[in-house]
Structure formats: C-alpha cells, structure tokens
Amino acid sequence: MIRVLVADDEPLIRAGIRMILTSADDIDVVAEAGDGREAVEKARGGGVDVALLDIQMPVMNGLTALVELGRAAPKVRVLILTTFGDRDNVLRTLGHGGAGFLLKDSAPDELIQAVRAAAAGNAYLSPAATRHVADVLSAAGATTGGEAARRRLDGLTTREREVLALLGEGLSNADAGRRLHMSEATVKTYVSRILTKLDCDNRVQAALLARDARLQPGRLQPGGH
Q: Which end of the chain is less crowded, N or C, counting CB atoms within 10 A of the terminal residue's CB?
C-alpha cells in the first residue's frame, strides 16, 4: 500500500481528497494535517510514503513544508496541490525537490496517477502545469536550440516521435493514448523509453525538446520537413 499524508487547512477538501485516494486499492490515507508544520511533524515519525500538500496553509505553507520535509523526512515524496498554477510555484516546487505539482481542478484519476508516480520515484506534473512551464521556459530562452534539439531526436522511432509531439502539447498519457489509439499503459512505456533515449529527467524537459525541434503531431519530421 502507498501511505499518504494529506495536508490542507480546509477539512472538506481533505475529506474529498481522502475519498478519491482511498477509492484506489493500493492507496491508504494514513494521516491528515491542517497546516504545514503539523504535516512535517506527522511525516517525521515515519509511516508516510507520499505527502500531498496544499500551498496556502496557515502556520507553515506547503512550499516551506516541502523544504522542511526534505530535511526531516527525505524519503517522503511530496506532491503540491493548489489552485494557484503560476510559474513561480511550479518552478519552486521542482527546484526544492518536489515530486510533482497538480491543480485542485485536476481529475480524480489524475490525482491517483500522481500519487502512484511519486511513490514509484517519478516526477509528475499535471498536463496544465507541463504546458505552463514549457511555455515559460521557452519564452525565457531556456531552451536547447532548434538544431541541437533536432539532432537529439535522431534516434527516435516514428511512433516515439508521435508520442513526443503530444508531450510537447502537454497531453497526459491517457489523452495521448486516445489520440494515437493506444492504451495508456503503452503510452507510459513509450514515454519512459523517450526520456531514456533523450536523457531527460522529466516530461517538461521532453516537452521543451519537442517544442525546440518544432515537432508537431502529424508532422513528424522536426520543423515539419
């Protein structure tokens, strides 16, 4: 079982998250907290695999709690859940070692998927967050460069390019699967293979490469050639 701690200052929100997560056979909500400090204290004692933290909480906010958990309980994987999907929060979450970032309007199955990904040691960004970060980094010029990106894609198969193009659009595995008439599990396998071949740590880096190379669905050669 994946043991989860849920931290949010609104009891109704915590109850809703608990209901969603415990509907999965492999997830158990073992602790709840109303603020970041309480979350750190409860996770410090062990018995928690994944902490799901709201950003806006009293006493200690979610991002500060993320940093504190890195010191007090480094084995706990932290997901940030919030209504505030701005650039700084996403980048700070990843910069401080967070396992992922979701918006509170994410679908229930996405929340479950994120917890599973975090428990498995993988980073997770909601499709909306992936698109946002990729847009911001591209606009800021934090990119590989078109020609260099195209060279990095040389070792990909046609199907891998199709999947990568959809990552560049910020699609989830499930949405990409529907677009390509593939199962979600198959897409997940392709994504793992793509990240390995491109030496990318996460989907955001892969999405940036797809954008730098101007890889578009239906136009599988970089730049549309």
A: C
Report pLDDT digits (tens) over 103-125.
Answer: 888 889 889 988 998 898 877 77
Would you say 33 and 6 are in contact if contact means Cβ atoms under 8 Å apart?
Answer: yes
- Report CA 200 to chain centroid distance, whole Å: 14
What is the C-alpha separation between 128 and 170, in angstroms, rounded? 7
Say if CB 154 and CB 64 are below 8 A apart: no
The amino acid that residue 163 corresponds to is: V
DSSP E strand stretches across 35-128: 50-54, 77-82, 100-103, 124-125
- What's the token pair of residue 62? 């979610």
Query: Tokens 């158990």 appear where?
Result: 28
Strands (E) in the chain, as ranges, are 2-7, 27-33, 50-54, 77-82, 100-103, 124-125
Neighbours of 144 (CB within 10 A): 16
Kindly report, residue by residue over 26-35, the tens digit of the pLDDT: 999 999 999 9
Q: Is the pTM for the entire model greater than 0.85?
A: no
Q: Residue 188 in 3-state DSSP?
A: helix
Please give the Cα distance from 74 to 71 (Å, whole number): 6
Torsion of CA 118, 121, 126, 131, to 10 degrees: 160
